[in-house]
Amino acid sequence: MAIKIRENKNLKGLEIKLDGPIVLCEAVVNTTWNPWGACRKIPGNLDQNCIGNQTRTGFSVDSDANYTRTPLAQSQDCNLTSDIVDGRYTLWSEWDDCSKMCDQPTTRIRTCTNPTPCNGGEDCSQFGRDTLTKDCGPLAGQWGAWGAWGSCTMPAGSVTYGTGTYLRSRKCDNPVNICGGDYCIGVNQTDGNCRGNA
Question: Which one of 99, 190, 194, 198 has the largest count of C-beta atoms within 10 Å of its C-beta?
Fold first, then answer.
């Protein structure tokens, strides 16, 4: 393409004429990716045997930005195994705390992640439901186990070895009475004889 420049007295300046088609240069962005990394378990995810995650890094070069190199990263789900795995349930969770929700339903759950079904393996439906529900009503308290015996206390004024007494106690916490349930029946402390110093 030829460029002709001549003076134009009418316009009081230079007149530029292009002899041929105008060619526009488009920016070119080249992207390069490294291979995908290993498939890894997802921390905190219930599924620890079937679906994981993998990442890869790369960079792009933009010809319109002085060939600036920009780092890139991608991630995607992946299979941790190619085996067919049948699912199994976990143990049941604890019941919700009824002491804070009297006269309301409480639930406990289990998940089909021990292991998670994978690659067409059977789910846990054959092993029953995954959620149980019950109402939070009055619950009577029950005594916990007796604690250890305390130190041996001798009678006042005793100066020699002799028979003294010691105590042990227990708590009404196995379980604690809630939602208006009865407190434990009986005593929370008992004594016994012991031998010890004055």
Answer: 194
Q: Are 57 and 70 in contact (CB under 8 A)?
A: no
Peptide bond into 43 cis (omega under 30): no
Residue 49 pLDDT > 50: yes
For the whole model, what pTM was predicted? 0.59
Q: Can you give the C-alpha Rg of the chain in angstroms? A: 40
The whole-chain average pLDDT of the chain stands at 86
Is the four-CA dihedral 36, 38, 44, 48 of positive or negative sign? positive
DSSP string across 97-152: -GGGSTTSEEEEE--S-TT--BTT---SGGG--SEEEEE---B-------------
Three-state secondary-structure class, residue 64: helix
End-to-end CA distance of the chain: 119
Q: What pLDDT is recorded for position 5?
A: 47
Q: Decide: helix, strand or coil at residue 63.
A: helix
If one compares 5 and 157, the residue with the highest pLDDT of the two is 157
